[in-house]
Amino acid sequence: MGQQFQYDDSGNTFFYFLTSFVGLIVIPATYYLWPRDQNAEQLRLKSLRRVHGRCLWYRLRLIKSQQSIIPLLKKAALLFGWAVFLFLAYKVSKLDREYQEYNPYEVLNLDPGASMTEIKKQYRLLSLKYHPDKGGDEATFMKISKAYSALTDEESRRNWETYGNPDGPRATSFGIALPAWIVDQKNSMLVLLVYGLAFMVILPVVVGTWWYRSIRYSGDQILINTTQLFMHFMYKTPNMNMKRLTMVLTAAFEFDPRSNKEATIRPTDNIEVPQLIRELGNINVKKKEPPFCYPYSLKARVLLLSHLARMEVSEDIEEDRRFVVRKSPALLQEMVNVGCQLTMMANSRGGFHAPRLISIENCMKLSQMVVQGLQETKSPLLQLPHFEEEHLRYCISKKYKVRSIQDLVSLKDSDRRSMLRFLGEEKYDEVMGVLGSFPHITMDTKLQVLDDEDSNNITAGSIVTVTVTLTRKRMAEVFEKEQDPQCTGEEQPAEEVQGDASKAKTKVWQNKNKGPKKAAKSKKKKLIKKKPVVQQTKAEKQKQANGNVAGNEATPTLKEDEDNASDRGSESDEAEASKDTPSERDEESDKQSDTEVDEMAADDEEEWKALQQSIQRRDRALLETKSKITHPVYSLYFPEEKQEWWWLYIADRKDQTLVSMPYHVCTLKDSEEVELKFPAPSKTGNYQYSVILRSDSYLGLDQIKPLKLEVLEAKQVLDNHPQWDIPETEEEEEDQEDSDGIEESEDEEEDND
Asked: What stretches of 608-668 adopt beta strand conformation (E)?
């Protein structure tokens, strides 16, 4: 049986192929591209209007949603695609069936199983009707003759029953769903030209353009040249102040029209940029160091500084300023990453100075300044609407002393209304609505060594894990609880380690835990332990190893120390009084050993459960992909919607060095658990670190908590432990058994003698 390939001369097969191809494109495109969430976006913007209505990004988004024709174009394109698909489907439905199963009974209009007499009679009638000599159709007559032969001739009937064809086996025919004119010799040059243009010109150009663009950008869509530029200047200037940092930021190649087509140079720049320079004052214009002296870098620096100063510019240059401001947060995040990489290289290799902590923290602070459009020396209160420079004198007066967001929140409502009386009732309500939407983060820390048997003791060189639990609430919840005196101490944020807040937290913590402490002491009395003093010191060691974090642990007061001492004295007296006879002392020691073993087993089981839970949380965090959409930032002058993100890290503020690399928390919607790991110091002793949480969007909401470490000496590994003396071969085992048997027999003989 042979094979035949033939092109579709009628074009029927090509319609089947074309209908399937269009359907595979139109159906998924409708599902993914139909602008069904346009109403949802309108509803979302409407819900944000009360708080974010004055923000620049909100007004731009609202205008864009109202004037955008992209959803209309998408709908038109999809409707056109569906029209083409339906037309092709209709065309296919009208096509005749080209391939049908051959049935001679149907050709002769007979029922299956008809007798030979009926077959001959029907053939005679049809022959008279369709015979070419009688004016009939020759093709139809040939079909009738073929069907008659298949039913009357023995060989033809056998071929029809076996192969489905009276002529026997035929070559398999495959139709190619392309019209025959494509391979027609007349059109060969045109087809070859189109083929060469598509696969030898267009496809290589598209792939080459994509490849060239991909190798120029990092995974965070930052130009590789920009990353190298940041690395050069952070290595060159480890201690970078804010002015120098601004110059390095605006020297990024993203602002150079030769590297980025989005950046533009306008003819009016020669007039407007010098005018802004005169208004800004000293911005190191005469500095000849490249690339700071290049026109694109100077323009970007002027635009960024004018944004921080909240200066008004013309409409022509406003678009360029929005472009620079919009790009800056991602570039500053890249600078933080570069600083961390240089720090890791300095720690592992040595030979050069790592960037100072102040340089990395200045990058974080500049990100806050860019998002809020504020200079470094300005008050955080200017982030709120309707606040101007002249209004700050009411806030910082001796009567109120409000200098931060936390001070404003902690005021009583009556004092707050009195201080902000210059706003009026309507503006005051708007300010309170905005302030209530600000984030209030609660930060809890837990310190342990997960990969060690004793996870509470930190030894030299071990890997320390600090589990930080972040809980986000709105400032409005603080307003509701501020009237309750019991909640005041707990809800005050710890901005830059505020002493009063930590004291208030300590008092609340002590009041809550006095009851459980006394209950635990009474249980100790009932157990009549032999060494209560040793257990107390052990607990103190665990407490020191876990780290005394301000706001989470409190040191016992003098009165509590006296209570502890009296409890220890009474326990020792009762224990001595109970030791009357040796038998009682033996029973007591047995009970004591049993209780100690049970407590140790319970402690080990709890530590094991905690370790398993930590591993499970870590695995879930690796598998889960959380959305980076958290909460929109209130920013009056930022041109794009910004989500609340945070940096979390551990630092040694005394030595101005990073202890753990900053973790960019981008998924903190309600609560988030972050594990920070770092190697413990190689020398034993007490160390004072800081757990720092910094916002990348808000000024004045950073938190710093002290973290104390007591590093103990690492345990010595015993080489001659009895359980490690295992025979290496079977012969040694047999020799060992023989020697043991001989010794046992000698002992028995001695006993018999």
From this structure: 646-652, 657-658, 663-665
Q: Using CA atoms, how far apart are residues 96 and 306, in angstroms rounded to an integer?
A: 74
**316-318-323 Cα angle (round to 5):** 115
DSSP code of 671? Answer: E
- 352 by Cβ neighbours in 10 Å (0-12 / 13-18 / 19+) ranks as exposed
Which residue in the block uniquely carries the two structure tokens 């509590």?
A: 560
Q: Are 476 and 437 in contact (CB under 8 A)?
A: yes
pLDDT tens sequence across 377-426: 999 999 999 999 988 888 888 888 899 999 999 888 899 999 998 888 99
pTM score: 0.66
CB 711 within 8 A of CB 680: yes
Q: Which two tokens stand for residue 164?
A: 């489905």
CA dihedral (478, 482, 488, 494) in degrees, to 10, reads 40
CA pair distance 671, 251, nearest whole angstrom: 37
Cα separations in angstroms, 257 against 118, 287, 294, 325, 369: 90, 21, 12, 16, 25
| Angle, CA of 675, 676 and 677, to the nearest 5° | 115
Instruction: For residue range 217-252, list pLDDT tens digits in order.
Output: 887 889 999 999 999 999 999 999 999 999 999 999
Kindly give, in sequence order, each residue whose CB lies less than 8 Å from that of residue 112, ignoring residues fewer than 6 positions away.
Answer: 105
How many CB atoms neighbour CB 270 within 10 A? 10
Q: Do residues 708 and 688 make contact, with C-beta atoms less than 8 angstroms apart?
A: yes
Q: How many CA atoms lie within 13 A of 276 on its CB side?
A: 26
Positive or negative, the Cα torsion across 351, 356, 361, 366?
Answer: negative
Opening angle at CA 294, ends 292 and 295, nearest 5: 120
User: What separation in angstroms does the CA of 656 have from each of 10, 237, 454?
Assistant: 81, 15, 31
Are 269 and 393 contacting, i.e. CB atoms less than 8 angstroms apart?
no
Cis amide prior to 169 (ω within 30 degrees): no
Residue 738 pLDDT class (50, 70, 90 cuts): low
Beta-ladder partners of 361:
none
**Distance of CA 558 to CAs 532, 543, 561, 567, 736, Å?**
20, 18, 5, 14, 63
